[in-house]
């Protein structure tokens, strides 16, 4: 499986976590995170993304923020 570049992945995670749950882009970001991480659930996608980012030394600034679908 191809991995997204850490900078792109960090931007996706940060943008997802800062958007209000009612924002229509939230669903698109959740989908993109799932596709990018090879998962089917945004919770799993965020966990995998955070793991990859930690391994790359690029943890998102708001780690552990809101998780909604």
Average pLDDT taken over every residue = 89
Along the chain, the helix and strand elements come as: HHH
Q: Helix/strand-derived class?
A: mainly alpha
Number of strands: 0
Major sheet summary line: none
Number of helices: 3
What count of domains describes the coordinates? 1
Unreliable residue stretches:
none
Radius of gyration using CA atoms only = 11 Å
What percentage of residues falls in helices of 4 or more residues?
55-70%
Molecular shape: globular
Q: Measure the end-to-end span.
A: 24 Å
**What percent strand?**
under 5%
Protein name: DUF5133 domain-containing protein
InterPro entries: DUF5133 (IPR033457)
Organism: Streptomyces edwardsiae
Strands, helices and their partners?
Elements: H1 6-18, H2 25-37, H3 42-56
Helix pairs in contact: 1-2, 1-3, 2-3
What do these coordinates show?
The model has no long low-confidence stretch (mean pLDDT 89). With 69 residues, the chain is mainly alpha-helical. The longest helix has 15 residues, at 42-56. It has one domain (6-56). The protein has helices at 6-18, 25-37, 42-56. Helices cover 59% and strands 0% of the residues.
Give structural attributes.
DUF5133 domain-containing protein, DUF5133, mainly alpha, single chain, 69 residues, globular
Sum this structure up briefly:
This is DUF5133 domain-containing protein. The chain is an all-alpha fold and 69 residues long. The chain contains 3 helices and no strands.
